[in-house]
Amino acid sequence: MRKGLTSTVAAHLLRKTYPALLPRPANRRIIVTVTTLEQIAHLLRWEIKTEWRDRSAISSVFLYVAVTATIVYLAITNFSAMTFNAVLWIVLFFGALVASGRSFLREGGRRHLYYYQLASPEALLASKWIYNTLIIWIVSGLSYGILTFFARESYLFETGAFLAAIGLGGIGLSAVLTFVAAISARAGGNGTLMAILSLPLLTPLLYLLVNLGGNAFGLTSGQAGSIIIYLAALDLIGLAVGLVLFPFVWRD
Q1: Angle 35-36-42 (CA atoms, 0-180°, nearest 5)?
Q2: Backbone phi, then psi, for 184, in 5-degree steps?
Q3: What DSSP letter does each residue of 68-133 carry, written as one string?
Q4: C-alpha to C-alpha distance for 101 and 99, rounded to whole angstroms
Q5: Whose CB has fewer CB within 10 Å in the chain, the N or C terminal residue?
Q6: Contacts of 18 (CB under 8 A, 6+ apart)
Q7: What is residue 23's DSSP assignment?
Q8: How far apart (Å, rounded) are the C-alpha atoms in residues 174 and 193?
């Protein structure tokens, strides 16, 4: 007993005096558990920081929207509420298509393997979806502002219906286009494939958005409530299908 105590004290003194002479205990592996919400927050912050460093990419999207709206103004000299509603959703659709088409262009090769080990597929898709939704909302406001400036008149009749169309439309467009962008990226980044897949999937959503926009600009009345319900249902379906199928696309 005394001998063991003496050896323990001696080892302790020797470790303090000459720490390199005695073997150290093996390093313990520290496992940090990160929830899905934390992964989404980290990936979203990284996405925003990356876009802010390379502002030319997002600036090109805004420039595309501005140029498209200007060309439309030069082609259509006499604006009306019906023309304004149609042009707004056309410009918004192609602006959202250009903005969301870049979602997974950086996640190829080694970076795909890095993301595969870093975060869950659901967290990655959710972060991309949130970011694209914010961009589409900005594109919506920019499109409406430019077209209103050129028209020199505001055709807005019901602000609530218009905000609902922009909000739910941005969510739905982002949900579908983000998932389609992932498929296109895994197929080699083919932009033609994204355009072909996006249009049939977004046709019901665009039909409802045009109708709700007509209600917002005073072209129709009495249908806003039911259209908003249908839009919310389509948004939920798009999000659910993306969350279910994206892991299989990402792990392929």
Answers
A1: 95
A2: -65, -40
A3: HHHHHHHH--S--HHHHHHHHHHHHHHHHHHHHTTTTSSS-THHHHHHHHHS-HHHHHHHHHHHHH
A4: 6
A5: N
A6: none
A7: P
A8: 17
The answer to whether 47 and 131 are in contact (CB under 8 A) is yes
What's the token pair of residue 218? 């005073």
Q: Count Cα neighbours of 172 within 13 Å in the Cβ-side half-sphere.
A: 28
Q: State the Cα–Cα distance between residues 109 and 195, nearest whole angstrom.
A: 23
Of 234, 212, 236, nearest in space to 85 by CA: 212
Q: Are 123 and 221 in contact (CB under 8 A)?
A: no
Question: Considering the chain, what percentage of its residues have pLDDT values greater than 70?
Answer: 79
User: What average pLDDT does this structure show over 117-132?
Assistant: 83
State the Cα–Cα distance between residues 250 and 48, nearest whole angstrom: 22
Q: Which residues contact 116 (CB under 8 A, 6 or more apart)?
A: 250, 251
Alpha-carbon distance of 45 to 177, in angstroms, equals 21
- The Cα–Cα gap between 5 and 103 comes to 64
**Rounded distance between C-alpha atoms, residue 47 and residue 53, angstroms:** 10
Answer for the pair 136, 99: CB distance below 8 angstroms, yes or no: yes
Measured between alpha carbons, how far is 102 from 227 in angstroms, rounded to an integer?
Answer: 30
The pTM for the full model equals: 0.79
Residue 22, Cβ neighbours under 10 Å: how many?
A: 10
- What is the structure's pLDDT at 222? 75
Report residue 178 as tokens. Answer: 């983000």
Quick: pLDDT tens for 209-234.
999 998 888 888 778 889 999 999 99
